[in-house]
């Protein structure tokens, strides 16, 4: 397994957010973590990369326990994280945003350069010197993914990549994620948009009120509409 | 009968960039109008001009025949325009009920009073509004710990506190589960129809738009490029090219309908 | 004409050090969102250490090496402070960091006197720049030309550093979103430490470069820090270019102001700052702050009026305090009266800060205005105490009406800085308008009426006024007006969208707070029997801030507890030790680290930590994470 999370419990202050959450991502797999807003998707991702101060449980990345490491160290090992709300550096140009994400090449993993990212997202190539703040929501979403790819990750956590984007841009996003998969990246996305998840994922987890309620292939999920209806409120 | 909202030739540019160029439309009481379009098409700018947050460079906005262009948001609100925000804006240090009470105190022009306990003011009215949006059970909870969908409903209750004639909702269902989206929009539609409130909303979820809007307008690069019933807009090849894409991302039911 | 040119050159030379210090402060603020009050202390340390080194090692190498090594040594001290102290309080509200660094400033002031003595020191001239150059027949020190050239050079180097190195790009990225930078694999801890060290280096370098021009003294820190705040605010927080332009502007204003308006030379700079802020609320080169971290005072726990039980408890405490004159000695009672005065002062600031969300750095202005109002009435109109106590505070009210109108147009740090500027203007007037205020000699002979002239009588008078005023402030918190004010603080967007005029609501709150501070000030004048400009000074404003933060900014009544604890501690420490600043500063730092939510906030947390009823877990899980995060 590329990433194995077990017994994850997270807290914000006195609020207990995650309860014994387990999930895993295999080599080269695209996995979806489905759930509604506030179900604990973002907190799961933030816990994996060490951004939640109070948490217990185990996070194994490429066979090593990273649950005690600081965020930057986890990320440097090749675990890329794309947060929700994009959070690009609005004062920095596209190129400078890439500079922030840049890490040394990693053996056995695709190495990304700005040029290769412009191939993946041609829009960005036309605005290399543009400050992030002067870009549309769709372009910003591309930039935030490209910026994380500059760290040459072997696994990427994508938090709600379709949120707030026009349907057409979401389709482009799906194409890009499939291209990343072809590069050999393992990917886990958090999503509310089941249509989008279906387009790209091999497997899915459903999280609800901080607990994992379902785990299986997309076909399993398709075959069990009652699960979908109960936890995703479709 | 003249329209509730009549917008004519609305223009806004920032530093020479035209964000909105000559938008005109009208909206009747009880009508639910969706404004859709690509990211950066100018939807938010349009919204912010309608409630007075941004001053347009040119154009007119008439509410029930009265010009409201150039008025600050608080005055626009007093004329009967309620608003919800894309990123919920509530008073996080107060309880759910207190949030509504502040809006009611403001509506009744009582906020300059230094006497009395505000937490006891307009209790019945506040409870009624919370019941209307199904939040009465949570009235005493700190607003800061509400679930996202509940915050959205609270925003609706706050927006209804001034008995508005027009309701502006910026991505009202963003970040909600599909079922919650449907519930919120059904609720909104029912209230709007019953009270004759005109509703203008932006949205990226086409399921919500095609299901709940009476009329859909499409904004692209600051211009209205289409207006019609959900069915007409869905089938418009131009709209598909600039915004809807191949339609992989909304409910199959709608896809089949539009293929017909 | 030549004279003006020479004066301009002298201004430019002064601008160099000011720019160095200000750019350091600006860079630190930009990335770490910390207003480093200790920046002036580092400037001073730079000068002292450079003095010692250049004194010991003569010659060009000794001098220039000494200046450089001194700056590096002080930068290392700064880095140590960042690692040991600031890292512990990054998650505390911004004001706490200000408080902690203020505590450090106090400590450094005493340490400097301990190490180097209290006498002013005269440093060596810079080798190779000891002479003067004739400009149109007037002599200008050649060292000034060196400084004039240095400013643009440092500006250029900093620009290259921030735009042409990866470190610089990382710093600019961290300025906007530190967590995201860490999420991209950057060790943000060391990034912060290095930024802080760079900022401190610039401050110390600025100080070290001053030794050939001025004497080194232990009051250098406060005199520069105010000027630096002004520069940074005029230029725009976080902008190095802004700091450069503003440093020149301020230095030239000082150079020419003293020629044109010697009487109000100090005021001109502050007036320019006020004008700049009103026209450009984020300074000349500043950008609007992104969504600020949650405004001061926002608590996730909604405030509640007191229960009957709690009310009885408070009443019991008041009764016990009222009985004190029956058994306490005169000294205790006069200390008690002073504490009471500060309780009211702190409560008025607390109202503005926590209910209004407006953190004033210059609240002493209204306290002092009330004091001067009462004193002037007694001195010029022979008013009795009773009349002076009622009419005196009106001066505080008038000041708040005038200054508040400008201040509420701004928010966050800029609001704080503008309030500071207005307080300094008031202080300058009190200090320089000698004919009316007596200047430094103050106004003496402000004694209470005979019935209140005993320590017992005055204590009762103070207690009565303070209890009534604090109760009134608390009532206001829960009144419709208080709700509207909190609404404007919680969400400007939403409050405006439900018909609330946020600015005018905040203006009224500013006036209310100023008036109550004025009442406290008037009482203070009669307590001390005199008024001095210090009443309006920065230390008084900071005292108020310390009390509020110590009590707890998320609470309704923290200020009362904070004022009692802090004032009692300060008075006690003053009487016990020679090194009162060192001890007081140390205590402040410890308290900030130990009680980041203030004393009352800490106690409330304890109370709410009790286990919840079973079955509550489900709803806990539904806590909106985004909300919790936003409130952090």
How would you summarize the topology of this molecule?
The complex is a heterotrimer of chains A (about 230), B (about 260) and C (about 625).
Chain A: E1 3-12, E2 15-25, E3 30-34, H1 41-48, E4 54-61, E5 64-65, H2 71-76, E6 79-82, H3 94-101, H4 114-120, H5 122-125, H6 137-149, E7 155-159, H7 167-182, E8 186-191, H8 194-200, E9 203-208, E10 211-217, H9 218-223, H10 225-232
Chain B: E1 5-14, E2 17-27, E3 32-36, H1 43-50, E4 58-63, E5 66-67, H2 73-78, E6 81-84, H3 96-107, H4 123-132, H5 148-159, E7 166-170, H6 178-195, E8 198-202, H7 206-212, E9 215-220, E10 223-228, H8 230-235, H9 237-244, H10 252-259
Chain C: H1 2-32, H2 39-56, H3 59-84, H4 94-116, E1 132-135, E2 138-141, H5 142-164, H6 166-176, H7 178-183, H8 188-208, H9 220-235, H10 240-260, H11 265-279, H12 308-323, H13 330-355, H14 364-381, H15 385-391, H16 393-407, H17 412-432, H18 434-437, E3 443-444, H19 455-478, H20 480-490, H21 492-497, H22 502-528, E4 530-531, H23 538-551, H24 558-576, H25 580-594, H26 598-608, H27 617-621, H28 625-631
Helix pairs in contact in C: 1-5, 1-8, 1-9, 1-10, 2-3, 2-4, 2-8, 2-9, 3-8, 4-23, 4-25, 5-6, 6-8, 9-10, 9-11, 10-11, 11-17, 13-19, 13-22, 13-23, 13-24, 14-15, 14-16, 14-17, 14-22, 15-22, 16-17, 16-22, 19-20, 19-22, 20-22, 23-24, 23-26, 24-25
